[in-house]
Amino acid sequence: MDIQYYLTFREVASCGSFTRAGERLGYAQSTVTVQIQKLEKAYGAPLFERHGRTLRLTEAGVALSRYAEQITDAYNESLAVMQSPNFGTLMVGTIETIAAFFLPAYLQRFRNDYPGIALAVYPTNEREVLSRVKQGEWDVGLILDPLLYDPELETVMLREERLVIISGDSHPFAGKDVIGIRDFEKQSMILTERTCTYRAAMEHAIADNKVKVNIVSELGSIEAIKQCVRAGLGAALLPYVTVEAEVKRGELHISRPDPEWLPPFYTQLVISRKKKPALPLRRLLELLQAGGGREQEAELAVDGTG
């Protein structure tokens, strides 16, 4: 049954006239009459009877009015919710590092502002993030890479991401401030997965300089890499944000990669240029932009660099 029939029914019951109901609803009287007739046919009973110059509800009409009120109130409420910017799903594609160590605090703040928005976060590799954002499958992507320029995407730099070489107590890198590309010669290294952008940058530098490195393992888990480094199996290149807790507890040593072989990496937000960001997405962007800078300042203060 068309929801409009119930809205018309309530209006006729309220004003006691097909003509006045039509005026309020912007319908011709004949349209109101047809809609009420369809309701009466569907329920198999007359819903109004004439009382002098006005209409009043029959016994069946009184019974239906209670349900019509619930039906139309629910419809109006659902319409308001669906048309509100506080309803829906925001789909975010990103890499594991950002999903686990950067996003959670901001997602909670966003939920406080938009409790009706469901946040779906998809950890994956950067190539898939960029592809799905371009295709409009995901609303926004968060990547870790040198500054990205893509004609199909709007890119917002959130913060420079510190990359560090982590090592255990017994590794030759322990206590070393800066690691040059030649320092990797014959050293044991644990690598992240092949799709990792900063791994690719390190591998290019090693290959370009013909450095021989002992690759102990390739792992897709940040936590597994940290455990292997603590166990003395080798050193690894990771974002500082992923090892901050262990460094503060004295469980890992960190060294700075020489900028001559490793370019700056940035956490960046990407949106399709075809997409017009709605208010919730703009709010998420504001939170990330404001918070990213503050976090980086705090990291530098704790580490005593910068």
TrEMBL record:
Sample GO molecular function, one term = DNA-binding transcription factor activity
Q: Which UniProt keywords apply?
A: DNA-binding, Transcription, Transcription regulation
- On the tree of life, the source organism's domain of life is Bacteria
Output the Pfam families linked to this UniProt entry.
HTH_1, LysR_substrate
Protein name in UniProt: LysR family transcriptional regulator
Family indicated by similarity: Belongs to the LysR transcriptional regulatory family.
- Asked if the keyword Iron belongs to this entry, the reply reads no
Q: Which SUPFAM superfamilies match?
A: Periplasmic binding protein-like II, Winged helix' DNA-binding domain
Q: Where does the HTH lysR-type domain lie? A: 1-58
InterPro entries according to UniProt: LysR_HTH_N, LysR_subst-bd, WH-like_DNA-bd_sf, WH_DNA-bd_sf
The protein's matches in PROSITE patterns, at most eight in alphabetical order, are given as: HTH_LYSR (PS50931)
